[in-house]
Amino acid sequence: MKKISKDIPLSEITLRRYERPHKETRRDIIRKLCLSIGLLQPGDSRDVIVDVLYVLLNAKKQKKKLTSEEVKDNVIKVRKKHKLPLIGIASSNIRRQLRRLKDLFIIEKINNSYRITEFLSLSEIFEEKFESFLIPTVSARVREYFNAVDENFKKSSK
């Protein structure tokens, strides 16, 4: 039997549609955003990504960059303030969450420090990075696979 190599996506994006944001806390709105773009899975209690983004958004107000350790320390403060369990706060996991945010162009790394990309608003980042770059490239490639399947099934019944 032929061995299949692991299929690793070049990029990926998950988009989910929820109710319009209403009178929710800042953390709840950030949580819904993370759910909406696939950074958090529905029903997932491991939500430290929400606090990582929360901390970076607070730092953006002062145009401040944070190291991963500063992010970790601030995440611990936020989780204590909201009376949340201190799970997912290991340095390695914080760095993993930072990488996930970086992969979606929400944050950038400059000299071992992180910031919201160019200190832009999240709506500007969505427009510039998601709508203009990420979504069209992923959509075009998915379309190629749809076309390839159509062509393959037109040719023969292999």
Please provide a written account of the structure:
The chain is mainly α. It has helices at residues 26-36, 48-61, 68-81, 91-103, 122-155; strands spanning 107-110, 113-116. A two-stranded antiparallel ribbon has the order 1-2. Helix 2 crosses helix 3 (68-81) and helix 2 (48-61) crosses helix 4. The two termini are 18 Å apart. The mean pLDDT is 91.
Can you describe this structure in just a few lines?
This protein has 158 residues and is mainly alpha-helical. The protein has helices at residues 26-36, 48-61, 68-81, 91-103, 122-155, and strands at 107-110, 113-116.
CATH architecture of the largest domain: Orthogonal Bundle
Quaternary structure: single chain
Kindly report the name of the CATH homologous superfamily of the largest domain. Winged helix-like DNA-binding domain superfamily/Winged helix DNA-binding domain
DSSP helix fraction: 40-55%
Average residue-wise pLDDT = 91
Distance between the amino and carboxyl termini: 18 Å
Give the helix tally. 5
Strand residues, percent = 5-15%
Question: Biggest sheet: strands, sense, closure?
Answer: 2 strands, antiparallel
